[in-house]
Amino acid sequence: MRAQIALGVLVAMCCACAQPPTDPGTFFQLTPESAQHRAAQTREFETRDETELLSASAAVLQDLGFQVSESVREVGFLRAAKERGAREYGQEIQRGIVFVLSLALSAAGQSNATQVIPVDLHQQINASLVTRPIAADGSRYEVRVLFYRLVWKSDGQNGDQHIPAGQQKMEMIRDPLIYQQFFARLSKAVFLEAHKI
Amino acid sequence: MRRATFRRFLPLFASALLGWGCASTPEPAPDLLAPSEEQMKLRSFQTRTFEVKDKNQAMRGVIAALQDLGFIIERANEPLGLVTAARFAEPRYFDVLGITVTVRPQKGGQMQIRANAIYNNEPITDAKVYQNFFATLERSLFIGRN
User: Fold this and answer.
1) Chain A environment of B132 (Cβ under 8 Å)
2) How are beta strands B47-50 and B110-119 bridged, if at all?
3) What is the pTM of this model?
4) Do residues B85 and B72 touch, judged by C-beta distance below 8 A?
5) pLDDT, tens digit, for every residue of B28-81?
6) Fewer beta carbons within 10 angstroms: which end of chain B, N or C?
7) Would you tell me which residues 68-87 of chain B have a C-beta closer than 8 angstroms to some C-beta of chain A?
């Protein structure tokens, strides 16, 4: 019984990320955070040359190691991606602790409770960038960029059940510092001052 | 005696099985691709006409509205007036919400905008969801410009 409770706790630890489903009615509603995200992701530039702004944005993304995968000049749109490793010590240590604990449990109990939790292995960081005129006379443009990442996990083991590698997780990147760094580079590239909105 | 009965009924049994085998293949309904009333209703939820003359301005408004709603713009095609975007149903990162918006100029300087939203590959048929989208879009098209 004790072993079963411990196993339950272990499984609950692994499933701690599970969230209740989102209400579909709220999908297209602005949230209190919407304005905050917009402010972090957007900068205004006093320029009349949108093409230059877009091409400088592509150059900055290239400098940051991104590959541009889609571009539409007419609506000022760019999409880019880069691949990176996603291994972290913290996760590896957690995996080790859970494995040793589960091994001790399965040695003590009757059932095979071996747990090897999958860890993040590889990630693809994506950027979606849009330029938009914000003055009727075309003298000011805003640049809005959005970063997010896809993470592929390694394989794992849940009792007798093998968890295959390749399970995916997605995550928006909301760290304001990353956006600040991007816009600092962009304003240098276009020799213009980036204004916060 | 029993064997003779069996032999007599065997062909009958086999033909019944054959007949059943053929009957079990479902015939595609003749109205499979015909427009249903439900589809017409859904189309009316998904479509709105705005007083915007410039297609490019309308498309940029759509893109800005989608970005405000946290969507990641995936594709845009200016000549066709198409924008495709997606986002995760945060905080559940395994559920994906996708949307395709088409912008088509109408006679008389109006712009017809149609949105198709899907949630985990299932079409969204709730009128309220589209109302929310168009409310945000309206704000982006008219108030967003200064």
Assistant:
1) 25, 27-29
2) antiparallel
3) 0.76
4) yes
5) 777 777 777 888 888 899 999 999 989 999 999 999 999 999 999 999 999 999
6) N
7) 68-70, 72-79, 83
